[in-house]
Design goal:
Elements: E1 16-21, H1 25-41, E2 49-54, H2 60-70, E3 75-83, H3 89-108, E4 112-119, H4 122-128, E5 129-131, E6 134-135, H5 136-154
Parallel strand pairs: 1-2, 1-3, 3-4
Antiparallel strand pairs: 5-6
Helix pairs in contact: 1-5, 2-3
Function: Catalyzes the formation of 6,7-dimethyl-8-ribityllumazine by condensation of 5-amino-6-(D-ribitylamino)uracil with 3,4-dihydroxy-2-butanone 4-phosphate. This is the penultimate step in the biosynthesis of riboflavin.
GO molecular function: 6,7-dimethyl-8-ribityllumazine synthase activity
Keywords: Riboflavin biosynthesis, Transferase
């Protein structure tokens, strides 16, 4: 039987950063609510959660890098909503943001969670921000907690 590495409990002094894009705020605000609610329900004190609003998804990686550099956070959650329009603009945003976030996670050995919705329609985004497909902000927070615990167990 293989040895399965199980996540350790998240340290009570762990801090979490959440970056939220203001673009499509009617969607991203719900993602933020889901993320904060999940972290608090899992025992993270409200005062250990820092939220930074940025204009849009494109600005998320710069702030994520600054927060990662600070060494203060157990994880950085990145929330946004990029909805396809009439051009390929969304594809460029999504690709750039996702690749930058991956680079930051690897450079700083830190969970940087991709909670950016990449939807074809506003309706799809609504369904993923607390609608019939769940809340991807909450799922992002759950993944952050699991990754923090797993990395803790691997030390």
């Amino acid at each position: 039987m293989p040895n399965v590495i199980q996540p350790a409990p998240v340290p009570t002094d762990a801090r979490f950063a959440i970056i939220v894009a203001e673009w499509n705020k009617n969607i991203t605000g719900k993602l933020l609510d889901g993320a904060v609610d999940t972290l608090v329900e899992q025992g993270v004190a409200d005062e250990r959660i820092d939220v930074a609003w940025v204009p849009g998804a494109w600005e998320i990686p710069l702030v994520a890098m600054r927060l990662a550099e600070s060494g203060q956070y157990a994880a950085v959650l990145c929330l946004g909503a990029v909805i396809r329009g009439e051009t390929t603009h969304d594809q460029h945003i999504n690709r750039g943001v996702s690749m930058a976030m991956l680079d930051i996670a690897l450079e700083f050995d830190l969970p940087v969670l991709f909670g950016v919705l990449t939807c074809n329609t506003l309706e799809q985004a609504i369904h993923r921000a607390g609608g019939n497909v769940g809340n991807k902000g909450s799922e992002c927070a759950e993944a952050a907690l699991q990754m923090v615990g797993l990395l803790q167990a691997m030390e």
